[in-house]
Automatic annotation (TrEMBL):
UniProt xrefs under PROSITE patterns: QOR_ZETA_CRYSTAL
Domain Enoyl reductase (ER): 20-338
InterPro entries reported for this sequence: ADH-like_N, ER, GroES-like_sf, NAD(P)-bd_dom_sf, Quin_OxRdtase/zeta-crystal_CS, Zn-ADH-like_protein
The protein's name: Oxidoreductase, zinc-binding dehydrogenase family protein
Pfam families, per the entry: ADH_N, ADH_zinc_N_2
Species name: Streptomyces bingchenggensis (strain BCW-1)
One GO MF term attached to the UniProt entry: oxidoreductase activity
Membrane-spanning intervals of the chain: none
Length: 341
């Protein structure tokens, strides 16, 4: 039905009513009320899909431990209406959310979360930017504090955040090593000046020690476990290990994440080197100015082609369960975007 202006809008939304497999992603009909003061109602054009969505659906994500919920951290949409001062209807905006909720046709968000798209930037490409690239920027600048000419190691360099780190690292003049194993990783990473290490066949600690006997300035890790100690050992005096995710055991993801975070904090108490945790969903709501300036900057870089988000596929919202299944089977390399329009 055609909604009245300022009235409730009917919409489809994907929800997880109980933790479990892809069958727990359910499409429901709901309504989205008019925005309260300081908020804007947005028609979602595209929502990025991340592995955190899969973890949350399975009940194995530390930052999403309650059901029911709507998955998804990032979106691009069109302003429908706003309460008070806000952007004009029809404005295209991007956002990364502190709490999940982007697998939907319409959503109401605080005005401060919405960043206008630069003219000419494709909305689907823009939807691949917020979470991965904000994480990479935070890792590099907020926590890593690396400088031009520094040497760094990117664990999982062919993943979403890994590619973002590679691209932003190239712009920052870093010397980069990257671990990966996916087909085509060596060629892909070479485009960004990253020296490829096949972690299934090579030991990154041995290679770094041979090639960089004095150590390197930073390691960016999303694996945890035994990798943390090995990554810490290749650091030069004054170097930093930045952890932005943890790969845990199925069924033990939350406990393994908590254990990994505690380990990083203990490492940071040792003299001579630093260790840091990066959790962008929490960081963006504690530093709104950084979030807005950074996302505007990243969208501008995407518009000019200076960063290159890799979109593997675009699927309708109703195919969310198929997308999750394909990601779990590791059938897709690159970002998947769900389109709601």
């Amino acid at each position: 039905m055609a909604p009245q202006e300022r009235g409730a809008i009917s919409c489809r939304r994907i929800v997880v009513e109980r933790f479990g497999g892809v069958e727990e992603l359910r499409e429901v009909e709901t309504t989205v009320a008019a925005p309260p003061p300081g908020h804007t109602r947005v028609k979602v054009i595209a929502a990025g899909v991340g592995f955190t969505d899969l973890m949350a659906r399975a009940g194995e994500y530390l930052l999403q431990r309650k059901v029911p919920f709507c998955p998804g951290y990032e979106l691009v949409g069109e302003v429908v209406d706003t309460s008070g001062e806000g952007m004009a209807p029809g404005t295209l905006v991007a956002a990364a959310l502190p709490k999940m909720g982007t697998y939907t046709e319409y959503v109401v968000l605080p005005n401060w979360l919405l960043v206008p798209l630069p003219d000419g930037l494709d909305p689907h490409l823009a939807a691949a930017v917020p979470l991965d690239y904000l994480t990479a920027l935070s890792v590099l600048e907020t926590h890593g504090r690396v400088a031009r000419g520094d040497t760094v190691l990117i664990q999982g360099a062919s993943g979403g955040v890994g590619q973002a780190l590679s691209q932003l690292g190239r712009r920052s003049g870093l010397r980069m090593y990257g671990t990966a194993s996916a087909s085509g990783s060596a060629e892909r990473l070479a485009r960004y000046g990253v020296e490829y290490i096949d972690y299934r066949r090579q030991d990154f600690e041995t290679i770094i020690r041979e090639r960089e006997p004095h150590g390197i300035q930073a390691v960016f890790d999303h694996i945890g476990g035994a990798n943390l100690a090995k990554s810490y050992r290749v650091l030069a005096p004054g170097g930093v290990l930045v952890s932005y995710a943890f790969v845990g055991r199925p069924g033990h993801m939350i406990s393994d994440t908590v254990r990994g975070a505690a380990r990083v904090k203990l490492m940071n108490m040792r003299p001579g080197r630093r260790a840091a945790l990066c959790m962008v969903p929490r960081e963006l709501k504690t530093n709104r100015d950084w979030y807005r300036v950074s996302l505007e900057r990243l969208l501008t870089l995407a518009r000019s082609g200076e960063i290159e988000p890799s979109i593997a596929a675009i699927h309708p919202l109703a195919k969310a369960s198929d997308v999750h299944a394909a990601l779990e089977r590791r059938e897709i390399t690159g970002k998947i975007v769900l389109t709601a329009s």
